[in-house]
Amino acid sequence: MKTLKIVLLSLIVLGLAFSFAYAKMHLPEERGKTLFNDTKFGGGTAGKSCNSCHPDGKGLEKSADKKEFGIMGKKQKGLEEAVNFCIEMALKGKAIDPKSKQMKDIVAYIKSLKGMKMDKETPKKK
């Protein structure tokens, strides 16, 4: 009987662990990170991803608080507009709908970089 309780408890703990891991994979930030690393994002033809210019999100740590961006001498009003500018110019793709799930996911990922201290290796929380 004691062995059965241990086995059942172990299965419950294991099930919960997998549930949390599965749920984390499906957070907007995680989906956005996948898009950030996808060379086909936005139909890009340059063979680049967002990560090509911003390794591990470097340079985007303060983007969540900005209302206006200046990229390549052009002004963009809002993060969605800045993302689309980069898709068109750097990735050589087509702008995506600012209200789309993809845009919400990549914006969530970029906003998740807020407060990250970037060094030469990997992002770390302050």
Describe this structure in words.
This protein has 126 residues and is mainly alpha-helical. Helix content is 48%, strand content 11%. The protein contains five helices and four strands. The model is unreliable at 122-126 (pLDDT under 50).
The radius of gyration over CA amounts to 19 Å
User: Within the largest sheet, what's the order of strands?
Assistant: 1-2
What is the N-to-C succession of helices and strands?
HHHEEHHEE
- Oligomer kind: single chain
Report the end-to-end length measured between terminal Cα atoms: 48 Å
How does the SSE layout of this entry go?
Blueprint (H helix, E strand, L loop, with lengths): L1 H24 L2 H9 L13 H4 L14 E4 L2 E4 L1 H11 L11 H12 L3 E3 L4 E3 L1
Antiparallel strand pairs: 1-2, 3-4
Helix pairs in contact: 2-5
Structure in a nutshell:
The chain has 126 residues and is mainly α. 48% of the residues lie in helices and 11% in strands.
Tag the structure with descriptive keywords.
126 residues; mainly alpha; two-stranded antiparallel sheet; 5 helices; disordered C terminus
